[in-house]
Each structure stands twice: as structure tokens, then as C-alpha cells.
């Protein structure tokens, strides 16, 4: 398939503007494979990009970094993440974060913080298209029992695995997750997989809190009805051992700091507000560890993919909605308008 061949793609043209266009199929570099996209999830960071509020995303751009499909083109030296040779027809999910593996951060074990990192769908054309070019070493063979839609969720689950790892939880610890969107819910999945039983989830959506209950949250708090900090103290006097803020608003970041025990861990993964005032003296006097969580390491992605193959997520229920790529522009508009009841939308491409 040559570089002059064309494909259909959902192209972001500027704030609140997306349309289907015909564009060139990506040209493969050495070590890359061409993936015919089957399913691609819409990420919260892409919603901010759609609104023109994300400085990393520049129009015109084909977004899409949560995806899975099948290999239809192979360059030289293409081996998959498990070391096997890439073969046409292989179903794969992929890690969209490309690191140089040579800078100081990569060599120190933080390839997610690579000085030259690139993200498919941000710095290069993404998966809201018929085809996407991906380094073969970032591709994971999808087993027959795993649906393509769930395989596409490897990436957001890996983000959540990273946040839970940074929270430094033990099975006997208590965890508060602020926000029951996809990342918050996936943090619940990751924590439960590690054996953490005492997990509290708060949100303003009753339907999302219902999902959290079904997925194993010991307690859910509807913030429209109950005060989070008061509820934490009633149920776990003294505070929780760790908090993950999957919202990132000024109010939720302040809540996270106040809800954790002295000496506890707070992980910020939500990116709602660019800057937030924090009670710095309180942080110092309580020796609270504050961590940012960005993306994932290859080990985090490996674990996320393993959890998916073990059945950590199921398609049953109303949390997942599937639409066609042609409906993508409408899906983005409805998501930012709050008109979607599902927690996650997957776009089916081919």
C-alpha cells in the first residue's frame, strides 16, 4: 500500500470543528507497521484539544491514541512487543507513546517523561482514520477472547495503572478516587486488581457511581448530596492512606490534600485546571507526598494489557457506547455538551 493511496480520516480543524476528509495513508518508517484501525476511543484530553484548550494539539490534526486494529503493512525490522515478527492480519493494540530510549529520563527508567517523547494522535497522525502507522515494538498481539473495543482501552487503563502504582498502596490501605470518569473508574479496576478492597469513589453523576459500585467500590459518594471530606472522616476517621484525583479542578485538588492521612500519598492525574492554589503549609506540616502521574511506563502498559486479557473489563452494561467514525464529530460535540450518558465512547472505523 503506497504513500500516495488515500484513506478516510476524522480531522480536527480548530475549536469545535471536525470533519471527515480524504487524506494520504501514512508512509511507514523502518520498524513500523501499518494498522487498519478497527476501534478508537475518545479521550478526555482530546475533548480539551477539540475545544482548543490543549497547547500540544495543533490543527489540522488526526487525533486518536486509544486504538486497536489489524496489521496490513509491514516495514523492515518490524517485531512486536512480545518479540514475535509482525505478520499481516495480526490483531494488535498499541502503546501510542513513543520515547527516544536515549535521553537521561529514558535511561533513568522514565520513558514516559522522555525529553523527545511523541504521542500518536498529537505529534503525528492518529487513529481516527482508516489507517495509522505505529512502531511495531509498541504493538501487542490481541488474543481471540479479547474484543477489539476492549483492546483499544489498553492505553487509558495503563494511565490508571500508573496512577495506582504511584499511590503506593498495600491491600490493607484505603483509597479515595475523586472522579468516576473513564480514568477514575479504571483506577478502581487497577486498585481492585492489586487487592485493595477499601476504595471510595466520589462523583456528581449517579450513573457513573452506579458503575463504580458494580465494579467493586466499597463506598460511593454523590457530591451533590454529601460532602466528601465529612463522609471520609465518618467512614475512615483520620483520612485515607491515598487519594487519586482524576478530575484536576481546583476544588478536587484541595479535597484530595485534605482527605489524606498525615504522611499519605496524593496522586494528581486529572488535567482540568492548568494551575491550582494549594495549602502549602498544610502539605509541609502533614508531610503529604504529592505526585503527578503522566501516561505510563512500558511496564505499566504491559500490566494493563495483561489485566484486559484476564477479563478486568467487560463490555456488558451501559458504560461503553460504540459509534461509527463518521459520527465522530457529533460525538465530540455531544460529549462537551454533556449530552452523552455512556462513560466511554468507542469509534468503529473499519
From TrEMBL:
Residues annotated as domain Enoyl reductase (ER): 5-347
Matching InterPro entries: ADH-like_C, ADH-like_N, ER, GroES-like_sf, NAD(P)-bd_dom_sf, Zn_alcohol_dh
Spans through the membrane: 127-153, 173-194
Alphabetized UniProt keyword annotations: Membrane, Metal-binding, Oxidoreductase, Transmembrane, Transmembrane helix, Zinc
Pfam family, one: ADH_zinc_N
Signal peptide (UniProt feature, chain positions): none
GO molecular function, one term: metal ion binding
Protein name per Swiss-Prot or TrEMBL: Galactitol-1-phosphate 5-dehydrogenase
